Amino acid sequence: MSLRRSCLSRRISRSFSFRETQKSLKETRLSGAGDDSAESDSASGSWAGMLPELLGEIIKRVDTSEDRWPQRQNVVACACVCKRWRDITKDIVGSPLLNGKITFPSCLKQPGPRDLPHHCLIKRNKKTSTFYLYLALTPSFNDKGKFLLAARRYRCGAHTEYIMSLDADDLSQGSNAYVGKLSSDFLGTNFTIYDSQPPHSGAKPSSSRSSRRFASKQISPQVPAGNFEIGQVSYKFNLLKSRGPRRMVCTLKCPSSGETASDKYLDNSEMKKSETAVSGYTVLRNKSPRWHEHLQCWCLNFHGRVTIASVKNFQLVATVDQSQPGGKGDEETVLLQFGKVADDTFTMDYRQPLSAFQAFAICLTSFGTKLACE
Question: Cα torsion for 259, 276, 338, 139, to the nearest 10°?
Fold first, then answer.
């Protein structure tokens, strides 16, 4: 009997203690109902409660001192502490156009630096038809670099597709790391670049069957079910088989200096494959090489960034550039150059108005045989 009374008293004691705790929490919430920021800081921990001035000064110093990879991962770590830290870090770091640094994955779809180009390396695996993009950390072509993007080539009926991803081990359109794709025609002379995310509010995915992200219904509300067309690359036919390198034209909408990376891209219904000036478009063409009589070959000045002659090598200049005053491109300034330095290693240097994602997609079009263009 005494044991039964002891157990009953313990239950009553626990119940009373639980009710008192609930009452105490309720009173605390009521007393702090008018101070949302204090409640948020308390929920996120003491790190989120730091003074904005002090927090901003700390992140500024980290951003200034850790200006290169792999040390720059400390800046990313600051953005991972909590939402408040992330917002302040993003404001301080800015875009690659302003600071010339690639920090977050979102930087890959923002314009490159204005003054000096980003030096990158593309490494190819022929066995798996996979291509890897790295940010070069040293002048050496053997440098491993900082991994940025990966792409794999697939044969889809009469055309070829390159699936691009942030994850080198997960190259599928259903992956959360999927960022876009490149699709070619049967001859491999006309390519369309698709973005996985809508480039602006109200953008509609392409309606063509080849541009659909999933064959079935959308699998998740958070994963867009379509691809959004943002540009085209075309190689001109060389029907007369005259001597000379490939000739290519790229038409795409790049964010100008007054826009962000999420602003409007090229509208699908208004895409044109021409070198004529089109409002809102950026039109690139390959820079014409000169014939070297002594070497008996076509030559371009890659300033030491290309060491092996190849039909894949090219330099692109702008005939129409909306990021410049008046929209006229400078045909002497190279915006993107691509060239071979080893059997399966290539350099890729890009700058404003191109993003790393766009530059990588354009360079992928150079791989593969193009009998009608050579």
Answer: -40
* Residue (of 48, 70, 71) closest to 61 by Cα position: 71
**Phi and psi at residue 183, in whole multiples of 5°?**
-125, 135
For residue 219, give every residue at least 6 positions away whose Cβ sits within 8 Å of its Cβ, in sequence order, or none.
174, 225
What does the pLDDT look like over 243-296, one tens digit per residue? 567 788 999 876 544 444 333 333 333 333 333 333 457 899 988 888 777 876
- DSSP code per residue over 246-294: --EEEEE----TTS-TTS----GGG---SSS--TT-EEEEEPPPEEETT
The answer to whether 150 and 167 are in contact (CB under 8 A) is yes
State which H helix or E strand residue 90 sits in: helix 83-93
Residue with tokens 């994963």: 223
pTM: 0.76
Cis peptide before 70 (omega within 30 of 0): yes
Is residue 252 a contact partner of residue 321, using CB atoms and an 8 Å limit?
A: no
- Distances 344 to 169, 225, 339, 341, 360 between C-alpha atoms, Å: 19, 34, 11, 8, 15
Handedness of CA 161, 166, 167, 168 (dihedral sign): positive
